[in-house]
Amino acid sequence: MAAGRRLGLVFARILSPRRPRHPLLKLSFGLLGVGLLAVLLVLGVVVGTAMLAIGLVTRSLRGGSARRPAEAQTVVAEYRVLRKPQLSAPGR
Q1: How far apart are CA 21 and CA 52, in angstroms?
Q2: Which of 16, 25, 88, 91 is placed for a possible disulfide with 20 were both Cys, Cβ 3.0 to 4.6 Å?
Q3: Calpha distance 57→51 (Å, rounded)
Q4: What is the pLDDT of residues 34-75, one digit of tens each?
Q5: What's the whole-number average pLDDT of the chain?
Q6: Residue environment code for 12-35, b if the CB has 16+ CB neighbours within 10 A, otherwise e
């Protein structure tokens, strides 16, 4: 049982995230994280803008909206209003 526990501690040490102690290393990791966040944000904005632009171009090349209006159809029918049934006592 002790060997399994020791192995678990080794894995916990290897896999647990630890902050560096040196101030310049902390600063560099922080700047790296902010830079990565900025790159992902810009990439998302560029991809979203490209998707909107492609959609507008394809819609304009098709000649307006892709949907055609439905044909006008007349439905001839008779209607009657139904009233709510009155609840009666179960013993009657």
Answers
A1: 46
A2: 25
A3: 10
A4: 999 999 999 999 999 999 999 999 988 987 655 666 777 888
A5: 84
A6: eeeeeeeeeeeeeeeeeeeeeeee
Greater confidence (35 vs 16) lies with 35
pLDDT at 67: 63
8 A C-beta contact, residue 65 and residue 59: yes
Residue type, 18: R
- Which pair of structure tokens corresponds to residue 71? 């044909």
What does the pLDDT read at residue 64?
60
CB of 10 within 8 A of CB of 4?
no
3-state class (DSSP) for residue 52: helix
The dihedral sign for the CA sequence 18, 22, 27, 32: negative
DSSP state of 92: -
- Please identify which residue in the block is written with the tokens 């560099």: 28
Helix (H, G, I), strand (E, B) or coil at 61: helix
